[in-house]
UniProtKB/TrEMBL annotation:
Name of the featured protein: Transcriptional regulator
Position of the signal peptide: none
Stretches assigned to the Transcriptional repressor PaaX-like C-terminal domain: 180-268
Domain Transcriptional repressor PaaX-like N-terminal: residue ranges: 11-78
Membrane-traversing stretches: none
Residues annotated as domain Transcriptional repressor PaaX-like central Cas2-like: 96-174
Length: 282
């Protein structure tokens, strides 16, 4: 079966494959297996090689031969990224209705502007919204993850964290819409719903073959995994009436439950280094 997965770039699909199928066996995939697996979703061999080269340049893949076969292994940095992704992508955090917030207040000297950029990037990836240039906000439930992430990145010296409540003066839903780009987030959730609701319906109606499961799951996970880094799980009562995030998450998790195992089984038939273990869902 060959299908093209929309506009997902090959490098994103490759990183999905490594996250799903390479880590249990040392983090290595051969170039031949990558071309075989990506061919299943409509990516040609030259595009695979070009994407692998870019991932190598970014320090995510390391060239390595196993038993004379050319391939690439995940770098330590890539393993860390994937491990963090597991904690974010496969969880469904949602703030309670008490509307407690975590404030990050920082000031980085002009002489260290690179550190300022790094800090802002980290806060964005943690799902923080922007109150002002030096004050960012997130639901209080991300405190533990925020502390850990900033400590590991060596950023803790640049900021202070506060727990807070909103006391006035504008309505809180109005402020949330200023602090986060809810329109763009909702559009991204809507794209998941529009693309994969019919896919889920098809799997509910009948069990399909493993090849279809592989194509559907690689596409689903590649599309979904950006969202948990941008949507911190804001309280539902502060979100627009037409918010699609809950529906998108429902689709992702139900579809994952249905197709992750047959997708892995198919990957194992196409790439000898991929193992099929019914206990490992991915």
């Amino acid at each position: 079966m060959t299908r093209t997965l929309g506009t997902s770039p090959p490098r994103a699909l490759i990183f999905t494959l490594y996250g799903l199928y390479a880590r249990e066996t040392g983090g290595w995939l051969s170039v031949r297996s990558l071309i075989q697996l990506l061919g299943e979703v409509g990516v040609d061999g030259q595009a695979v090689r070009s994407a692998v080269s870019r991932l190598k340049q970014r320090g995510l893949l390391v060239p390595e031969k196993w038993d004379g076969l050319a391939g690439y292994t995940l770098s330590e940095r890539a393993r860390d990224v994937l491990l963090e992704g597991d904690r974010r992508i496969f969880a469904r955090p949602r703030a309670e209705g008490d509307h407690q917030w975590l404030l990050a207040v920082f000031s980085v000297p002009e002489s260290e502007r690179d550190q300022r950029h790094k800090l802002r990037s980290l806060l964005t990836q943690l799902g923080f919204g922007t109150v002002s240039a030096g004050a960012w906000i997130a639901p209080a439930h991300v405190e533990g993850l925020t502390r850990e992430t900033l400590d590991e990145a060596g950023m803790a010296e640049y900021l202070d964290l506060f727990r807070s409540e909103h006391l006035g003066f504008r309505p809180l839903p109005e402020q949330v819409a200023r602090w986060w780009d809810l329109e763009t987030l909702n559009l991204m959730h809507s794209e998941i719903v529009g693309t994969y609701r019919s896919t889920l319906d098809a799997w509910r109606d009948s069990t399909q073959d493993d090849a279809t499961a592989f194509v559907d799951y690689v596409g689903l996970l590649t599309s979904w995994r950006r969202l948990p880094y941008l949507d911190p799980g804001l309280p539902r009562d502060l979100l627009p009436d037409d918010w699609r995030g809950v529906e998108a998450a429902d689709i992702f998790f139900e579809l994952r439950d249905r197709i992750a195992l047959p997708a892995r089984r198919h990957a194992a038939t196409k790439a000898p280094e991929v193992t099929f273990d019914p206990q490992v869902r991915g």
